[in-house]
Amino acid sequence: MALLLSLLCILFLVSPVISQDMLYEEFLAQVQACPKECRCPPNFPRAVYCDNKGLTSVPKIPPHTWYLYLQNNLIEVLSADALRNATQLRWLNLNRNKITSEGVEEGVLNSMSHLVHLYMDDNLLSSVPSPLPATLEHLRLSRNRISKIPAGVFIGLDKLNLLDLQGNKLMDDAVTEVSLKGLNNLVQINLAKNQLTSMPLGLPPTTTQLFLDGNNIEKIPVGYFKGLPKVAFLRLNHNKLGSSGVPKNVFNVSSILELQLSHNQLTEVPLIPSGLEHLHLDHNKIKSVSGSNVCPVSVDAVDDSVNDSVPRLRYLRLDGNEIKPPIPRDVILCFRHLRSIVI
User: Fold this and answer.
1) What is d(CA 263, CA 276) in angstroms, rounded to the nearest whole number?
2) Do residues 236 and 260 lie in contact, with contact meaning Cβ atoms separated by under 8 Å?
3) Does residue 103 or residue 10 have the better pLDDT?
4) How far apart are CA 136 and CA 268, in angstroms?
5) Which of 163-167, 288-292, 308-312, 331-335 has the lowest mean pLDDT?
6) Which of 63, 83, 215, 304 has minimal CB crowding within 10 Å?
7) What's the average model confidence in pLDDT over 170-190?
8) Do you know which InterPro entries this protein is assigned to (predicted)?
9) 4 backbone dihedrals φ, ψ, rounded to 5°
10) What is the mean pLDDT of residues 132-140?
């Protein structure tokens, strides 16, 4: 062991790869405290790799760890004792374990006052864990059993910009303005593959990417997107949307760049906003498409010399419907930037 430590110390002194913000004494302490079940590379001393080891509990983590990889194990409890020294953590990966909500000991996450990324996909959580550190920017909790978002759990998380809750058991009454309060700078929220029957309420106006695929949503309220002035990427594939549940101008939002409505029950093409670039309407029940119905401006008013007047649609997917080629000429005249049409 002494020889190994000596070799590592020599490597530390000669290698330019070692981080310059780590003191020699800290490096020694980190190497000596490395759990026997884990791997602590000397050229990346702030990282501890304990993944794919068949672990049933979290080993005691060295004090100067920034990156901790515990994915693909059999861990059931997130122990405060094991992580007591890991107060400098920036990145914690706990994907694909067996952690339950009861197994997350009180205060264990909140004590990590530098944590930026928390990954707990593919566990057995029934609720969003709390309290969470105010430094968090990315929170991934997909494919758990989450049916509850505790009120106030996100208050104080002003840096959180990505929230992934796909593949859980969330119903309409769980996703509300009260439960989402505090997400003041959220950019991306993924609520795909849950049990929603209506569009979620209370989404922050900063939302840019909204993913709602694989739910049971049947309609979109009139003016729904007025509260989401920055939404640019919207996915509603694999829902139960019919044309009667999609108000004519509901997508007429200047910020939307990509709209995915595949695998629904639409019988008509919705009005396409001028700024939209990608539109997925495949596998619906649409029988026809015409420029007079879907063009956001009069076809006669489209002027190539005035760039702002030309709708920006570049990609249109219509396969899996009841439309027979060719695409009508007035559609081509309207969407002059089209590069690809799948029919």
Assistant:
1) 20
2) yes
3) 103
4) 42
5) 308-312
6) 304
7) 96
8) Leu-rich_rpt (IPR001611), Leu-rich_rpt_typical-subtyp (IPR003591), LRR_dom_sf (IPR032675), LRRNT (IPR000372), SLRP (IPR050333)
9) -60, -45
10) 97
**2 φ, ψ (degrees, to nearest 5):** -65, -40
The two structure tokens encoding residue 213: 């695929």
Of the candidates 115, 94, 88, 83, the residue with the CA atom closest to the CA atom of residue 19:
88
Eight-class DSSP state of 92 = E
Token match 């997508």: residue?
A: 251
Beta strands in the chain (DSSP E): 47-49, 67-69, 91-93, 117-119, 138-140, 162-164, 188-190, 209-211, 233-235, 258-260, 278-280, 315-317, 340-342
| Nearest-angstrom CA–CA distance, 240 and 264 | 5
- Beta-carbon contacts of 15 under 8 Å, excluding residues fewer than 6 positions away, are 42, 43
Only one residue has tokens 């920036």, namely 90
- pLDDT value of position 92: 98
DSSP state of 265: B
Q: Using alpha carbons only, what angle is made at residue 61 by residues 55 and 63, rounded to the nearest 5 degrees? A: 170
Place of tokens 């569009």: 199
pLDDT digits (tens, 9 = 90+) for 237-280: 999 999 999 998 999 999 999 999 999 999 999 989 999 999 99
DSSP letter string, 8-49: HHHHHHH-TTS-TTS-HHHHHHHHHT--TTSB--TTSTTEEE
From 146, 143, 150, select the one nearest 169 (Cα to Cα): 146
| Joined tokens for residue 169 | 């058991």
Instruction: Please give the model's pTM, rounded to 2 decimal places.
Output: 0.90
Structure tokens at 90: 């920036």
- Which tokens sit at 149? 């978002």
Tokens, residue 250? 């509901």
Instruction: Name 188's Cβ contacts closer than 8 Å, sequence gap at least 6.
Output: 161, 162, 163, 164, 207, 208, 209, 211
- Check if the beta carbon of residue 52 is closer than 8 Å to that of residue 72: yes
Q: Answer with the residue of higher pLDDT: 333 or 19.
A: 333
**Length of the chain, please?**
343
> How far apart are the C-alpha atoms of 8 and 261, rounded to whole Å?
56
Cα 312 from Cα 254, distance rounded (Å) = 11
